[in-house]
């Protein structure tokens, strides 16, 4: 069984976590928080006129923000699964290196989304993009090492 | 894989069971099964030596190269 699979129950828990985190982080940006509550939206509307152009921009930003947090949470989830496998002495198998590849992919996607948000000049990100990319590349390298180690282990297991 | 293991034929000709051979050469039945089914990636010289000794045959009798 592929340990990277997210079942529906876990998916909903993860999405709940994403929303909570997203709202928590949006405290740093009052105008983003306004997207969740109608009261604040009125405040925002008073402070700056929301034009049609602004609204579509906010919609894109909100969607990207949600996606970025979702990718980050899923990346942490996969990393947690990887650590769990390591703790249960399952070191070199297909699932482990696949989990590492997924973590690095999600981190790269997170960095790309934040790069786009920076382009809009609305989001500076919770983490430095450079660090995120560096961590993603490091994790990918570890994934490659695990992949090679798994291959060697399989060959060793099949040596009679 | 172009290398074919003819262990089954040799065992049949010697009227010996896999279990007996596994016990004689000191490997598990599961490993012997891997060897017989051709799933093995490599065979140690020590294992080959033990098999040849137990079955009184040459390595060439067990292993055969077949072009794909």
How would you explain this protein's 3D organization?
Chain A: The chain crosses the membrane at residues 12-31, 59-79, 99-120, 126-143. Chain A: This is DUF2975 domain-containing protein. Chain A: Keywords: Membrane, Transmembrane, Transmembrane helix. The complex is a heterodimer of chains A (160) and B (68). Chain A has 160 residues and is mostly helical. Chain A has one domain. Helix content of chain A is 78%, strand content 0%. Chain A is built from 6 helices and no strands. The longest helix of chain A is centred in the middle third of the chain and has 36 residues, at 52-87. The two termini of chain A are 26 Å apart. Mean pLDDT of chain A is 76; it is low at 36-43. Chain B has 68 residues and is mainly alpha-helical. Chain B has one domain (3-62): 434 Repressor (Amino-terminal Domain) (Orthogonal Bundle). In chain B, 57% of the residues lie in helices and 9% in strands. Chain B has helices at 7-13, 18-25, 29-37, 45-55, 59-62; strands spanning 3-5, 63-65. Chain B is globular and about 35 Å long. The mean pLDDT of chain B is 88. Classes of the chains: A mainly alpha (160), B mainly alpha (68).
Quick structural summary:
With 160 residues, chain A is mainly alpha-helical.
Helix content of chain B: 55-70%
What count of domains describes the coordinates of chain A?
1
Number of strand segments of chain A: 0
The tally of domains of chain B stands at: 1
What class do helices, strands and sheet pairing of chain A give?
mainly alpha
Gross CATH architecture of chain B: Orthogonal Bundle
Quote the CATH topology of chain B: 434 Repressor (Amino-terminal Domain)
Give the overall pLDDT of chain B as a whole number. Answer: 88
Distance between the termini of chain A: 26 Å
The major pleated sheet of chain A works out as:
none
Strand residue content of chain A: under 5%
Ends apart, CA distance between termini of chain B:
8 Å
Total strands of chain B: the figure is: 2
Helix content of chain A: over 70%
3D shape of chain A: elongated
What's the level 1 CATH class of chain B?
A: Mainly Alpha
Average pLDDT confidence of chain A is: 76
Q: How would you sum up the major sheet of chain B? A: 2 strands, antiparallel
Q: Supply the number of helical segments of chain A.
A: 6
Number of helices of chain B: 5
């Amino acid at each position: 069984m592929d340990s990277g699979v997210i079942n529906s129950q876990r998916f909903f828990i993860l999405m709940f976590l994403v929303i909570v985190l997203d709202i928590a982080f949006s405290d740093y940006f009052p105008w983003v928080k306004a997207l969740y509550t109608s009261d604040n939206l009125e405040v925002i509307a008073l402070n700056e006129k929301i034009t049609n152009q602004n609204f579509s921009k906010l919609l894109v930003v909100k969607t990207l923000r949600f996606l970025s947090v979702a990718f980050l949470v899923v990346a942490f989830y996969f990393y947690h699964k990887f650590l769990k496998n390591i703790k249960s002495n399952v070191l070199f198998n297909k699932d482990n290196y696949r989990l590492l590849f997924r973590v690095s992919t999600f981190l790269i996607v997170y960095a790309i989304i934040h790069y786009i948000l920076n382009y809009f000049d609305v989001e500076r990100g919770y983490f430095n993009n450079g660090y995120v990319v560096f961590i993603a590349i490091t994790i990918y390298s570890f994934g490659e090492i695990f992949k090679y180690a798994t291959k060697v282990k399989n060959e060793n297991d099949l040596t009679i | 894989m172009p290398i074919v293991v003819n262990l089954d034929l040799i065992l049949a000709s010697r009227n010996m069971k896999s279990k007996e051979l596994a016990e004689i050469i000191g490997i598990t039945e599961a490993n012997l099964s891997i060897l017989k089914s051709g799933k093995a990636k490599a065979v140690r010289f020590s294992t080959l030596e033990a098999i040849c000794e137990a079955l009184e045959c040459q390595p060439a009798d067990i292993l055969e190269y077949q072009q794909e």
